[in-house]
Amino acid sequence: MDSDPLTEERHHGHRPHRHHAPHHQSLRPEAKNPRRDLRATRNPAALAPSSVNSQPWHFVIAHTDEGKARIAKATHGSFAYNQPKIMNASHVIVFCARQALDESHLAAVLEQEDRDGRFATPEAKAGQRKSRRYYADLHRFDTKDVQPWMEKQLYLAFGTLLFAAAALEIDACPMEGFDARALDEELGLRADGLTSVVIASLGYRSGDDFNAALPKSRLPADAIITHL
Ligand SMILES: Cc1cc2nc3c(=O)[nH]c(=O)nc-3n(C[C@H](O)[C@H](O)[C@H](O)COP(=O)(O)O)c2cc1C
Q1: Which residue has its alpha carbon closest to ligand 1 atom 21?
Q2: Burial 54-80 (b: 16+ CB within 10 A, else e)
């Protein structure tokens, strides 16, 4: 049953709520996710919303030791502190952005929307094509910021994954600390028009996870929120 990954947990009974810390310095190597948890964490990032439904992303998921070791190759030198967070995780997801928002991708999105029943008329399809093209061209040619724009969309998927994992009481460690050039090379990403941007490892926290025991620290609400 692959219907709705986010609600699937409810069909199997909800585990009692416990304190959840979204970022974990250390994950238990022996802890494996139950299969239903894995299905649930595989999909939410890919289901995230993105501007004009551009979906400028790709996800590389590793759950074998060999797969995780390939990703961990990008944690040499000053990134070595992240290596155990990859090797001891149950699953590791590399979030990749497209290098270009090209015609073939825009066409693939449009045809998928068509297959999914988004267009009642040919005019509706043409309208969607035109409005997506407007925003794509705005970022490609006018503001010339298509790369950061695509990465903004990717981070929505990243946040969605972290939140979905938290809702399922699966612990996660977000990581920007890796050598993107080395990882792109190891996974052959650039040849496929992709580049690695950020990594999430998933599992269950280890007993010596120092960060889980620390209190959360955020700037006070009145310093970062303005009510009108
Ligand atoms: C995009 C992003 C990248 C991060 N990169 C790393 C990283 O490479 N290694 C690491 O140990 N923590 C990393 N973190 C964790 C943050 O340091 C952590 O979330 C922050 O200090 C707040 O702590 P908390 O998550 O426990 O509240 C990253 C977090 C985010 C959101």
Answers
A1: 23
A2: bbbbbbbbbbeeebbebbbbbbeeebe
